[in-house]
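Hmm, what's this shape?
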Amino acid sequence: MTDTVLPSQVSPPEFALSELPPAAIVGADVVAVPVLPAPPADEPGVLLGPGAAELEDALGIELLDVAELSRMTGAVGEVVELPVPTGIASNPALRLVLLVGVGAARPIDVRRAGAALARAARDRDAVATSLPAVAPDGADVPGSEALEAFVAGTMLGSFLFHWRSDGPGHRPVRQVVVATAPGALTSDQPALARAVAVGGAGWRSRMLATVPSNLKNPAWLAAQAVSIAAAAGLEVRVWDEVELEDEGFGGIVGVGRGSATPPRLIRLDYRPDGVSARAAKKLPHLVLVGKGITFDTGGLSIKPGASMASMKRDMTGGAVVLATMAALADVGCPIRVTGLVPAAENAISGSAIRPGDVLRHWGGRTTEVTNTDAEGRLVLADALAYAAAELEPTVLVDVATLTGAMKVALGQQVGGFFATDDALAASLSAAGERAGEPLWRFPLFAGYEDRIASKVADADNAGGSPGAITAALFLQHFTGGLPWAHLDIASVGDVEKDLHEWTVGPSGFGARLLLTWLGQDEPLAGITHD
């Protein structure tokens, strides 16, 4: 059907490095230089960062005067535009100069400045910039972290999705050339490649979460996983509805049985480059599980219309797992990783699960379904139980837009998480802070266990308040006592207005933090395993 063929989408910007100052990069129609607040000991005003002096010489204009006339303070995200109608001698293509505030030039500031640059440079051909070359106070030189932050901010600040008959309303700038320090070109290339991989994973997870559900169903999501596996050199397996039924995945089958598009379970396996299958068995093994509800009506416990409008993104956890798996090799992940995505559509029909039904999960544990809108935990339970019993993991981590309670607790800029191990919690929290996807830890308080008790089954799927904690306690029973973290990203699943690197729409939150964590030399260091 023509109405379910995804139109060609825009691509993120391409990135390159140059040892030339931005003003000397031929072919760039935009040049952007950083503006910083003057130090407190100086008079109020601003300072210009690297690349500005050469640009002033080429333009014959005092850019500091332009900044001050525009009342710039150097705050992060400030942008002043200076048209250059006839170019400059070193670059006749130049048409626009951007003065971009970078604040204190910390990685978070550079990320946000990159996003501001992306918005100002959209529909342009190429931008040359020195924004990541500004060192924060107390640092002699900027590090690779600043480059990674800039690339992620610029890439995600460019994100858009369209299904328009006449094409997208705007396009990201085609190319971004980053001026690097003389002699640093070779050493900065690996950092750039890693940055593009991490930012690209954020783009992919957003794209998957944004695709409308008249196209995106469990089979479509499985097909995306197969394509990802082929491109990234991953092993892949997909269970169809018959196999799921035969092998006892009662939670996935139960949630998906009301839909015209049957459920799937997706498995992707990664091992580090150059490591044989036999040698990989000796490596630590992480299993990532991502909720893959491709649309959530709430089932017979139907959602209000307003709450249903954004439910195409209820597979964000699955999108995050797929995007993370695709980029593990690019960040040099040193451990074995398996990704599981239980995918189903929670629909309404004569065959849909009912309040009061009892489901038998993989492994035999039973759940009384008292609310069909608490379906995410039902599919996650199957995948976690299977992983704990069959895959011999060192650590389990699941990612899901699971509870509205998390949004009530945290608003829309911080994700919530639970963890059974302090070292695991600290690693995830640190990675989230660095990646610009912050997390806040919640307690797995056993005192609320009685709220998920059922008189007819092993558990009730809707334990009530406090909703995020009772959902986590429900899932914990399926983890086999392994070190486990549960990322409830419902709080950050949607972006309601442009904010820094986030553009309006499903966020795809989580891929950058997982890759930041898994790209370390020993991501599972210090985690205890009985």
Observations:
- The chain has 16 helices and 21 strands.
